[in-house]
Amino acid sequence: MARIFLALILLLTLACASAQQRHNYLAVDGDLVDAAGPYYFIEHGDSANAFARAAPLAEAMGLKVEYLADQRVLRFTDGFRTARFRATSDVAAGLVKAPGVVSVDPPVEGESTLASPMAILVDGVSYVPIAPLARAFEGESGWVGDRRLVTVDTATRFGYAIPRPRTGITDGVSRVAVDIPASAGYQVAADGSTLLLVFPGARSEDVSLTIDDANLTTLSVGNGNGTVSLAVRTRHELDPAGRGFRVGEVDKGDVRTVYVDFAPGLVGAAVMALATGDAPAAPVVEAPVALTTVPEQRQVVVIDAGHGGHDPGASSRYATEKWVVLSVALKLKALLEREGIEVILTRGDDTFLTLQQRSLFSSSDRNVFVSIHANAAHSASAHGIETFVFGEPLEPGMIERAIRENGGGAEGEALTAEARRVATDLAGDILREAQLNFSRSLAESVQRHLVSATGAADRGVRSNLFYVIRNARIPAILVELGFVSNPEEGRKLATEAYQQTLARALADGVLEFLRNGGITAQR
Ligand SMILES: [Zn+2]
Fold this sequence. Notes:
- There is one protein chain.
- The protein has 523 residues and is an alpha/beta fold.
- It is built from ten helices and 30 strands.
- Strands 3, 4, 5, 6, 7, 8, 9, 10 and 11 form a nine-stranded mixed sheet that branches.
- Strand 15 and strand 16 form a beta hairpin.
- 43% of the residues are buried.
- The chain binds zinc ion.
- Zinc ion (ZN) binds next to loops.
């Protein structure tokens, strides 16, 4: 356990250093598996079904995994059992979270299918629902709230299985009995109306029973960290000194039956007093799976020319941002329409739109959102092209840029803060993760074409808290075409010829992305 805490502290330190937000953690048999996730459908209001990257999770669980592309099946095996998850992978049709089953062979506890959300394949990365995978291999998955930790305990971790407890009442005395290996140990604690039997190194199915006889109300069995806890609730008061119950054992060779009798007048041996908070944790409740509608497959590109109207954006004696980006946007529209692509402009003339109005254009029935801007800097020597995806900037100084593009002044700071909240709230969201992967692919494609077509300095693909792309449901980028404040670049940006070159390169970058189905690299 100390190892987990140390690793967590290290991880949190690293996370702060790189200015990235992490909400939750995943541990398999006590070891953090940082590369695996977890991820959630946070935007679907579902934080109960945690997903993980399939490859690192399988490795941590001692499983082999392969993707059977022809069947769209993610297949896990431990050499004895196989578990097959159907996967949704048609990203062009929209990301879908769908209910499904995992097929297991041989069956687990008599069941050959277990309920599970479908696995997901996005941009070459497979994501698998964690709890169903753990169950398919007779392991357990849990949630440690105070450490924000999703746990997976594989079956190999547990010493023995405890069958369902037996209950009955005879002559006014209620009995709860459970069979364990003769070599296994256990502990008993009691207080108030609760008696707890704890079996270290054991595993069991979770059980929640209403008994409702003369002495008992409920019985529940919970798992956690390789320990099974059996809690019995009584109608009468229990005294750990041994009043109100009696613990006994029956040896049957390899098996030992542990039983507890309950009645108000019973007197038995003293047990430990039950400390508050020792009750077994409630099992993780999984929220119902929401099914999203699948949008029609169309090729629609949204082009957002920055600023406009009373907002000139960056300006210098050489060029004004709002005119440069409008001209490039109109040229880009013509080029894409020539390729049969539907283009939607947020503005087609010198009109001012708020960033909120602009971001509404990035709805999920469109394929790509491209926001076009130009830069300015105090230093006249600054020059070059850069393309942004949404996210916390890695260089703290970059935040000034976000504030300026988010409207500047107090409004720019407020919108930047709101964008930061979005980045924090959605850290770990599987759809956001996928959308960011695609946005990066799009950004890399566009940046490469822009730099090679213009010969401009390559300032790279970066992330920043640009409000206009904060909530995009589709791949969304913000391009800075160059610095109007640089004498050479500023003069070029004002020319029709250079604007046409930029538009052609933007079109080539977007087309390459769309034609590859949004995938530029397998990870
Ligand atoms: Zn701008």
